[in-house]
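Contributing new complexes? Match this layout with zinc ion.
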Amino acid sequence: MTMIDIEEEQIGGVNTSECPLSASSTTVESEESMNGDIPSALEAEELQLALNKEATEEELLKAITRCKNLVLETKNCSVERKWLVRHLIELRLRLEECREAAADPEHPRNKSSGVSKRTIKGHHLILQPLLRSTTSRYCDHCTSTIWCLVQAWYECQDCTYSCHYKCMSFILRECAHVVTSERGAFEMEICPEVGLSAQRYKCAECKVNLELKKGYNEPKRCDYNGLYYCSGCHWNSLAIIPARVVHNWDFTPRAVCQASLQQLKVASNRPIINLEGLNPKLFNFVHELNLFRRLRNDLYGMRKYLLVCRIANEDHILWKGVDIPHLLETTNLYSLQDLMDVHSGEIFIKMQTWIDAFTKHIKVDCEICKGRGHICEICSNDQALYPFESNSFTCDECKAVFHKTCFNRKNQCPKCIRLKVRDDLMKEEEYCDDEL
Ligand SMILES: [Zn+2]
Ligand SMILES: [Zn+2]
Ligand SMILES: [Zn+2]
Ligand SMILES: [Zn+2]
Ligand SMILES: [Zn+2]
Ligand SMILES: [Zn+2]
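Output block (do not edit by hand):
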């Protein structure tokens, strides 16, 4: 039995050319079950040496031979053997990297001349440190595993696109951050499909020919943009689709291509959904959305007080603990994440904390804000009333504030009546003056 046979037989799915699509569940299990302690055989100094420092080709070759022998000494299917085979793969990949680096002066292994940062297709790619990673990572370009411990790899700091160093020059996908910023809004049509023939039976991203029969290259539709992709560009990842949320309050995750997945992730916290403009009826059907809008208006009203209060500004009351600033800055724009949090109910806990803190400042702690309260002219109760309180009513014309019940009883604004009487009197006087 050759070494390659041992690797393929023993390690199951953990191979170097693994695509996330073909990754079977056994692969995931075998990787996870290997998170325990490293077996003692692996502690052998020369093996560790080869991975932990800048080993030379010669040292790596020696470590590989030693590791091969250790594999043969271990029991079939044992955890130890799995670790050793994995280590052997890592050593081989490192040897490959070592040879590549010798031939390529820009290779990141060459400390003095290697590239640690690069801008490609709008991505700001940063060289990642070599670390043992517990989660599987796949190259966004070639879809194979990134062996974080031995292979040089880069990640975009804006959209988390990750790829091998060797794949960097072939990147096709535009940075999701750039795409989203240029577009400025989500696709609001539900799965706007143009059809395979309009795409000339080619993958919308890499342009590879798609085959109509079942198999690796069967076309996969992205539920977000309605386009068809190959398996390399569409990994069956699931995402919540903004258009489905806005039109149907539907949060069921759907399969999207990797480009859409990254765009949706990048944009999920941006307040770019004008919900009332897009679907005003939704507020009639979704009770929690209605409640959310009411609380948000209350917060917005309180913000007006806090913005002009010197003490509130000094204490940073307005921004202390508020991690979603756009909820206070506007009343009509929502992020996708806001809507998800409304749906899960999570956002109400946050909002109530802010409302409590703001109310305490305005109505209890601060003399300045207390002095800016209103007195209801209809009942003349001397308790201060604030326009953001749910029991208050603000006159559209003169901005006077009354108790809602008082105003409903009277159904007229006394201040507006007073102002009108005064105006009429003044006009009459002017008229009399003219007559004289
Ligand atoms: Zn790659
Ligand atoms: Zn990017
Ligand atoms: Zn493709
Ligand atoms: Zn104040
Ligand atoms: Zn009143
Ligand atoms: Zn009025």
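Reviewers usually confirm one structural detail per submission. For this one: DSSP finds 18 helices and twelve strands in the chain.
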